[in-house]
Amino acid sequence: MTTRRGEAGALDRIAVLFIHGVEIRDPHYAQNATNVLRTEYRRACRISESAPQLEVEAAYWIPVVADGLDKVAQRAFGNRFAGWTRRLDALVHRVDNGSFLAMLPLLASGLLWRVPGLPNVHWPTLRWAFTYFVGDLVAYQDAEDTDGNYQAIHGCIDDALAKLAERAPQAPLCVIAHSLGTVIASDHFYDLQQNKPAFPTAVQRGETLTFLYTLGSPIALWMVRYPSFDKPVRLPGRDDQRPEIRAAAQWVNFYDPDDIVGYPLKSLNDEYRRAVDRDQAIRLGPILARTPVSHVEYFNSRRIMRPIAERLARLATDIPQSRRGRRRFRAPR
Questions:
Q1: DSSP assigned state of 179
Q2: Which whole-number Å values give the CA distances from 306 to 35, 53, 97, 168, 178, in the listed order?
Q3: I want to staple 214 with a disulfide (CB 3.0 to 4.6 A). Which of 48, 129, 182, 265 is the partner?
């Protein structure tokens, strides 16, 4: 399918890719975030008779490493600990879908030294967090120089981009990535730009990457592992022939000061200072939830999705009238 256009090449599609971070056990993790983004996009485009359609896809890479981590946890601490982790995963699932109330038992469980039925596991919730959150990081990085997890994880990103390309092969691409997903996104599009693989569409080749939003990003820590890796991923949209694309292109790094995983990026070096438009400090969730657990709240924050949607809407409002299609605005699907 080719991207449909109005008169003189007016934009008809914007491709949006979500990339999750650690310990997400739900292929629909971005459903709530997608709904919020679309709602805010419709609001921002309300005065436009013609607006690009949002085509959204969520990459889901956790199955690549989940089985291995489950085996480690079960063999080390038994089936009952596996049951405990499933209950915690269920709470995270509720948080992913916008439930602040689910954070309360999650926070409370982290204070428990012992739990009845788990005599061999001290601090079981902290053990779960270390096993799965840090385990995902280890599983991703240690396989980088092999054909193991690194390639398989990036294969999941390729698959998601291929699905987007079926609906919007030439569309400007917006990537919204969280936590370890920001590192995966950075690696993925950097590799595409360096290796130039022969994918059939511009979206799959990363040639239309125009918007990058990193949420709670630990990219700064990867500078320690790769001290000579001082060239951040580039946004090809900054060099697009269409002035409205160049004007809208943006990389914003959102981080909550209470989130111990998220770091500013512009101060890393001169390359990042030029590549990142803004480090945006933002408070997530209610006051009582302002702890390091705020790391799981980025996708659900309207305070994040609203400015993203408004930036995407610039492609509806900044396109000169003579270049817009004649159709009336349709709500994104």
A1: T
A2: 11, 17, 17, 23, 16
A3: 182
Higher pLDDT pick, 322 / 238: 238
DSSP string, 16-29: EEEE--SS---TTT
Lowest mean pLDDT among 30-44, 84-98, 260-274: 84-98
pLDDT digits 0-9 by tens, 283-306: 887 665 566 777 888 998 999 999
Q: Are strands 173-178 and 250-255 parallel, antiparallel or unpaired?
A: unpaired
Residue 322, judged by CB atoms within 10 A of its CB (0-12, 13-18, 19+), counts as exposed
User: Average pLDDT in the 175-187 region?
Assistant: 95
Position 324 scores a pLDDT of 40
Residue at token pair 């200072």 = 273
Backbone phi and psi for residue 15, each to the nearest 5 degrees, phi listed first: -90, 130
Burial level of 302, CB count in 10 A (0-12/13-18/19+)?
middle
Query: Which has the closest alpha carbon to 298: 21, 3, 1, 2?
Result: 21
**Do you know the residue count of the chain?**
333
> Does residue 100 surpass a pLDDT of 50?
yes
Question: Computed over its alpha carbons, how large is the radius of gyration of the chain?
Answer: 20
Whether residue 323 has pLDDT greater than 60:
no
What does the CA dihedral 333, 102, 308, 140 come to, rounded to 10 degrees? -100
CA atoms of 313 and 224, how far apart (whole Å):
37
Check the CA dihedral 86-92-98-100 and report its sign.
positive
pTM: predicted TM-score of the whole model, two decimal places: 0.84
User: From CA 4, how far away is CA 126, in angstroms rounded?
Assistant: 50
Strand order in the sheet with 250-255: 53-59, 13-19, 173-178, 209-215, 250-255, 278-281
pLDDT for res 73:
77
Give the domains, in start order, of the chain with CATH numbers: 7-64+147-323 (3.40.50.1820)
Name beta bridge partners: 212.
Answer: 175, 251
